[in-house]
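User: Some background: our group keeps a shared notebook of sequences we're curious about, and every so often someone picks one and asks for a predicted structure to add to the entry. Today it's my turn. The entry only has the sequence so far, pasted here. Could you supply the structure so I can complete it?
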Amino acid sequence: MHPKNLRIEDYAYPLPDDRVARYPLPERDTSKLLIYKEGIITEDIYKNIADQIPSNSLLVFNQTRVVNARLLFKKPSGGAIEVFCLAPDVQYADIQTAMLQKQKVVWECLVGGAGKWKQGMVLQLTNEQPHFTLSASIISRNASAFSLSLEWDNEALSFAEILHFAGKIPLPPYLNREAEAGDETTYQTTYARDEGSVAAPTAGLHFTEAIFNALEAKNIQATYVTLHVGAGTFKPVKAATMAEHDMHAEWIDVDRTAIIDLINNQRKNLVAVGTTSLRTLESLYWIGCKLINGEQIDWQGIAVNQWDPYEISCNCTTPVALEALLHYLDKNSISKLITRTRILIAPGYKFRIVNALVTNFHQPQSTLLLLVAALIGTDWRRVYDYALAHDFRFLSYGDGGLLWGKASLGI
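Assistant: Of course. Here's the predicted structure to add to the notebook entry:
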């Protein structure tokens, strides 16, 4: 069945409010770990995850860094309006370029209390240390967001620094609480590097230096990609069938060295740490297929659309697709691949690169739950029923699982 025909109501489950983890555990790696493999469910904790993965495997992590995307402005009358910075305007080549801008940027934003902000009104936010005033004005608006001009008077500071000093960490709305000082650290992976996400790649929140040492001792390799998580990751599927749901687009950034790691890892276990890493990896295959097919790729637009995996005619092997990517980079003297993906991974998808996933427990009727179902089939319900019955904590600050797909190799 084509995923367009999937009914989202078939991917619902009861999630009591008290099962949502409002805060993380004091120690990242003491979270519970559910292991699903060949239909069997067992338990462990993250600290021991290396024991559950074969030696010579490759783990792929998303090294994006969450930015302080929530800004609280004041109207001339004194009232407050909150701005949530989603993504840079299309005029910028990528998120990193936009983050390094000085004095002015154009950003796509959500606005809380938008009805109180009249066209032509300039809002301001003043920060004392370092001192600057950030001004916001409306350029345009569409059905879902505003295009805002953001300008500041301290020419030494980049926009990334402006957000760091003036913004607040954007906790997921389902936590139903304000961000606290501790969230600045706990809602960030220990290996976060590339600024640009408005939500954490939460599967990676459990990983500590002790875990990385244990992985290395077992000759389990790690490599890194970047997908800047957008607010669309929380977008509920409101349509009855997936055909009517528009998948959100997100920036990916993959170094040439990571592609080489993937090529060298063929016929071994490849574990994606998080749904964002998985979506990035599987997108690489389809971009390679498009290159092989001679298709024109809109690198600054959308390289992979949501239905491409189900409608593109491509039977090339994974190594061939990855080699095509590497050839493209080398031919154009490019060290990394930067573009956007709207890939939708749902039941009916054939995995090309990944055969296991480390992930938290996701919201009912979400595209993230569809991805899990694509990997382990109808057993997704058994996994979630088990987690609910055995006191696992759910969503961003909760526990997680190591889920092996049907093509995984034995330990």
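Suggested note for the entry: The two ends are 33 Å apart (CA to CA). The mean pLDDT is 94.
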